[in-house]
Amino acid sequence: MHADRKQLLKELILDLHQGVTFDEVKARFQQTFGTITTEEIVQLEQALMQEEGITPKEVQKLRSVHAALFKGSIEDIHSTPAEKQLGHPVQTFKKENQAIGHLLNEDIRAHLERFEKEDNEDLRLKLLADLNLLMDIDKHYSRKEQLLFPYLEANGINGPSQVMWAVDDFIRQKLCSSSILLWAM
Fold first, then answer.
1. Distance CA 77, CA 90 (A)
2. Which residues are bridge partners to 74 per DSSP?
3. What pLDDT score was predicted for residue 102?
4. DSSP H helical segments within the chain, as ranges?
5. CA distance 27 to 52
6. How confident is the model at residue 37 (pLDDT cuts 50, 70, 90)?
7. Which residues of 49-74 are buried (b: 16+ CB within 10 A; e: fewer)?
């Protein structure tokens, strides 16, 4: 990424972190850049952590804001060759993410909505079974952390893996506290 472009992108993100309104920053981004590549986002997040001292946790916290800022502007996010190679780890991780999303948004949500209306043993057991499946997410994260992150870090890409690891740990913590609540029911 060209140094001037990187600096301007950093300034936009720092403005977001310092409270400038999203709409103002989004307008400036669209006027100045129009599009951005996933590689530039990776370099930007890494620069924010290394050069600006923003912690992975802060980047994680505002990642949804960053994603909204760049939404519709990312050139190459949906067409990486690795995703199309049968059995490639990236393809596998994406498919697992889709399955996790389905489990959360379809199965668990439906069982939870029914349970809220009619508390019975059958629904309680379905929720526990769903939770047991969801706890397998740790295997997904562990593989990602052991396969993908070392590869990224060996190639000098540390920022994204630090942020993803923080997200993984946050989700693990939430799952653990949720499972305790469900087991207590």
1. 13
2. 36
3. 92
4. 3-17, 22-32, 38-52, 56-70, 81-84, 89-102, 109-117, 121-135, 137-143, 149-154, 159-184
5. 23
6. confident
7. beeeebebebbbbbbeebeebbeeee
